[in-house]
Amino acid sequence: MEAKSASSTHEVILEVENVSKSFPGVKALDGVSFDLRRGEVHALVGENGAGKSTLMKILSGVYQPDDGIIRYKGKPVTFSDVTQARKAGIAIIYQELNLIPHLSVAANIFIGREPLTRFGTLDEKRMNADAVAMLARLNVALDPTIKLNQLPVSKQQMVEIAKAISFDSEVLIMDEPTSALTESEINELFRIIHTLRDQGVAIIYISHRLDELKHIVDRISIFRDGRSVSTDDYTAISMGEIVNRMVGRKLENKFPPKQNVPTTEKILEVRHIVRKGVLHDISFDLYRGEILGIAGLMGAGRSELGRAIFGADPIDSGEVLMNGHKLSLRSPADAIKAGIAYLSENRKEEGLAVKMTLAENVTMANVLEICRRFGVLSRGQEIEVTQRYVKSLNIRTPRLTQIVNNLSGGNQQKVVVAKWLFCDSKILIFDEPTRGIDVGTKYAIYELIGALAREGRGVIMISSDLPEILGLTDRVLVLHEGKLAATLTTAQTTQEEILNYAAGVA
């Protein structure tokens, strides 16, 4: 599916002129300008921390600008909150969907605006009919009475889009909409984006997956360090130039050269792991200094295997040995004590305490190490430890007391790594380590993973990005429906071979 040309009207519906926004210690936006036309898909790209999310939150009423002008339909506007922006016709769909799982499809679409009968009771029949009509606008057929938690993520996203356009939205902002979708689900989303564009909706599309832009995008704007760098027709700029403008330098290679040399010393042995209905008799070895990939289609058991090794999910049978000694992994605490770390794909919910400071996050998993006698925390040691990791991992932060939620995605990932290094973890399990991270920061994460292996640690990398698997790992385990389909030497395999095993056709 290739991108169509932008709307022939070229009518500007939304214009941003010299907008700035600062937070304590950070200038998030510095005089940025941007415009959006009716009936176009306009990509907004840049590294983590470039200012994309801040601008979107200003446009949707979450923040107010410090300086500059926003014009909507030709008139200057300032939205005091999300409700005001939504009533004006600007809606945003975040990467984490803003829906209520135990309510029906129709109830989610019209929550807070449910139609009532003349007796003041819920008019469920009308609400369901209106939901069907709203979904039909997207050419989507769903039972309006089904509970949301019974639907796959892709269908939940369709409900979120239907909810957004039910406000008669003329501007739709989509933030990383494909991050949790399969390839077929992504194609369905693209079809809906084309439908909305043909109906005259103006769409701002934010994504780190640059290769998908060619299917839907009309124009592209690039941000860097809180400033707007350029705006071009998508067909007038090359992928190499997009990346160069994003990072401010040339990236000759997507992956750093492989410098780690795995030893023949087994650091981890997994024997006959079984979790009924999920994992079926999986065995493998991990060597000191090795980067071992785990690949497979969605639902193959990749994350479940990582969580089992970390003690986060129970197993029915099997054993895990570290340095030849059998481990008892009844909980993550047991794994941490043994020197095993797990970096979840959902770092905000399972890897970080986002409302706490950088320093508190770095030390939280090993806080006794920085306590004086009688269990009193040494703030001086906490700062000293954090400074060490901020320097060694190149964590970009205005101060050590910065709230973690205010850091970019790439820097948040580095904070999680720092936390586990402070625990002296010998085995690190990375689950989708670069999800939601820009191309420049990805390279830094890849360099970090390589450095950990060269230090003699064992690294397991779970990833749905096959070029990432091929570019970084030494060997790859391919899972299919909870079974180990193949163990391949990365240098001697291809994406096609991995996919064949993953799909169960090899």
How are the SSEs ordered, and which strands pair?
Blueprint: E1 12-23, E2 26-37, E3 41-45, H1 52-59, E4 67-72, E5 75-76, H2 82-88, E6 90-93, H3 105-109, H4 124-136, H5 153-165, E7 171-175, H6 183-198, E8 202-206, E9 219-224, E10 227-233, H7 239-247, E11 266-275, E12 279-287, E13 291-296, H8 302-309, E14 317-322, E15 325-326, H9 332-338, E16 340-343, H10 347-350, H11 358-363, H12 379-392, H13 409-422, E17 427-431, H14 439-454, E18 458-462, H15 466-472, E19 475-480, E20 483-489, H16 495-502
Parallel strand pairs: 3-8, 3-9, 6-7, 7-8, 13-18, 13-19, 16-17, 17-18
Antiparallel strand pairs: 1-2, 1-4, 4-5, 9-10, 11-12, 11-14, 14-15, 19-20
Core attributes:
six-stranded mixed sheet; single chain; disordered N terminus; 506 residues
Commentary on this structure:
The protein is of the alpha/beta class. Helix content is 31%, strand content 25%. The chain is built from 16 helices and 20 strands. A 6-stranded mixed sheet has the order 6-7-8-3-9-10, sandwiched between helices. A 6-stranded mixed sheet has the order 16-17-18-13-19-20, sandwiched between helices. The protein is globular. The N terminus is likely disordered.
